[in-house]
Amino acid sequence: MKLGEEGDIIIARIRAGDIAKNLGFNYMDKTRIATAVSEIARNAIQHGGGGEMVVNKLDASRGIEIQVSDRGPGIPDINRALAGGYATGAGLGLGLSGSKKLMDEFEIISEAGKGTKVIMRKLLKR
After folding, report:
1. Sequence-separated contacts (24+) of 76-82 with Cβ below 8 Å
2. Are 73 and 117 in contact (CB under 8 A)?
3. Nearest residue to 36 (alpha-carbon basis) of 91, 118, 117
4. What are 108-126's pLDDT values in tens digits?
5. d(CA 97, CA 125)
6. How many CB atoms lie within 10 A of CB 126?
7. What is the pTM of this model?
8. Which domains does the chain have, with CATH numbers?
9. Backbone angles phi, psi at 3, to 5 degrees
């Protein structure tokens, strides 16, 4: 789905939450997934000039994977951004680090001037 304006954050959050619920995630994990999606989608819109989100079911119903990408300026220091408290705008700089803590797997691919891609996975606990 396209991420271009603030309203898209709500739609992305709802879509990811609905897919997580259908896969069998409990309420708390569904909320964790929706919160992480909100933060990363907001970053794509505010700092990356918009982008897109793709949600996939992991093989053998192991869980959910969310990919959010943009074509913004990139993240100059990913390690610093993931440490928390690193803000390039008016925010607190906790979106990336907070989202990472909410998910089981978290990866950032970023290149200056070409954009950023965040891949997050939450695994079903059975």
Report:
1. 76/112, 78/108, 78/110, 81/108, 82/108
2. no
3. 118
4. 999 999 999 999 999 998 7
5. 22
6. 6
7. 0.87
8. 2-123 (3.30.565.10)
9. -120, 105
